[in-house]
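Raw record, unedited: G-protein coupled receptor 143
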Amino acid sequence: MASPRLETYCCPNRDAATQLVMNFQPKVFCGVCIGSASISLLLTVLQLLPKKGQSPRKMPKASSSSTILLLISICDILGGLGMIFRSSVWLGFPGFIANISVVNGTDVWPSTFCVGSAMWIQLLYSAGFWWLFCYAVDSYLVVRRSAGLSTIVLYHMMTWGLAVMLCVEGIALLYYPSLSSCENGLEHAIPHYITTYAPLLLVLVANPILFRRTVSAVASLLKGRQGIYTENERRLGTEIQMRFFKIMLVFVICWSSNIINETLLFYLEMQPDINEMPLKNIRSAALITWIIMGVLNPMQGFLFTLAFYGWTGWRVDLKWRKREIPWESMSSSTVGENAYPSPVNYQSNIHDSKKISTTDSQQTDEAISMLSEGNTSSDERLTRSSPIYQGW
């Protein structure tokens, strides 16, 4: 699981709350993390592999939304691999891990492994949070027709730059001036927790607002495409709204336990003695949410693929062949020689004025297709209702 407690455990003089959860059934906890991360990893890869009889899940080159979804999954996969490696070492080499508790030990490798593995997990999941925020921003920009090829470069700079900067800053403040003196006071720990949970809270607060504004903009686009708001348009708008809802639902399910757990542990840290009997229920709740975190945090990768694409099935197609995507036929003639052929025969005597009026509809179709990517029924319904499919 991904928690700033992983970094604070690397301090030999760690606080009592961290000691409580990290020493609670460590073998069971590591086994839970390995099992959950392994299942999520296998199912996520299965979801992303091409399937027989299905079109590959990718967007036109002018869209960055598909790339962002893939990067979110990659961050989850790499973060899950970090959990598996870290928990495996903890289970396989208990004597090696025990040296972390030595205050003035001469062997630096246990502490190096502890810090390095914790930073790897924290960095990858933090980057995933930033990519999820970029997805909400990009979805809004797509319907506003402000996104393009250059935006993905800005997303990369923002995501990796902020993730690395916050992670390094939080670790540096936590371990300053050295591992042996970290966690001596809250002035070391609080900045670390802030830099860790800042992107998570940003997604919880900002993404619902951006998704709501995107859904409103989509409704306006669908109404203005043909001047009417038919049942197909209403259903397509509902499916896009449901997709955003499922993304946020997965995020809340996977990370709400972290917020609850940190709140309980911080409360325990403020007490003179966390082992007092009146605090028994709080200790129990903290330990329960700690185990829940080990289950839900790694499962985010697989659950996100369900929210993005739905269940794609078991029949994997490992043969590479180019297949036409239904909504790629909507690309306008301005795409140039890379455009895919249209599924209908164009009439050669189309008037220029009708072409101009159709361009906006094409751009609208492409914007909606980007948001409904991965939903086959939505793509087919959008293609059938588009003026290109109908042959004008």
